[in-house]
Amino acid sequence: MLTIGQLAAYAGVTVRAVRHYHQVGLLPEPERDASGYRRYGARAVVSLIKIRTLASAGVPLSEIGEMLGADAPAFADAVQRIDGRLRAEIERLETSREQIAQLAAGDSLALPPEVTAYLDRLREIGASERMVTTERDAWILIAARWPDRIREWMPGKLAELDDPQLVRFYRLGSELFESDADDDSRAHELADILADLLEQAGTAGEDLGELARDDLPFDLLDALADESDPRMKRFRELMRERGWARWIRPERVAE
User: What is the pTM assigned to this prediction?
Assistant: First the structure.
């Protein structure tokens, strides 16, 4: 006959675990002997080893009692259910690991891969890291509002980066906003390029359809642009002089 310490050591668990299994009803408590100690027999050792094995395999304690008393078919069904849950949990954890690994690049936080590819393309054409960061934050706002439309929009956005005029806009804008000095002549050139691009493309609202009437995300995107650099106020004035207001959903200024 074994003491509780001997029982725990034989089965490879702690005394605390044995007591917990007593409390939850998985392992019956034996009667105390004349000395006041609990003594465990061979059957208790077998039961405890089964409990330990099932618990180590990921079976919840709430299900172990039922499994210990199940016949072979019922036990097999229970194992299949638990295996299915474990597979689903493994898949969830693998997805989490992939997401964590992607976060090492920084741009992947809250963004789909299509957008990170677009941001990489911006770097390739010469956009500064500060400009890419502002673009990234803008796409976070867009992806949160319209997650199902990102894959539809990104091929067109990538194709736009083949336009030499747009490339010039990003490079000139990067030079302007990376500099601490005000450069009004460069700001005028940047405004001229953007106004010309808008004239060619028309207003963004025409392309967005129903989404153009969702004011909140566009207000946030405009605010993000303004918050990115104090000189954006001056740039906004230059754009109004050229007949355009707002940033992300441009509007023609009334005559």
Answer: 0.58
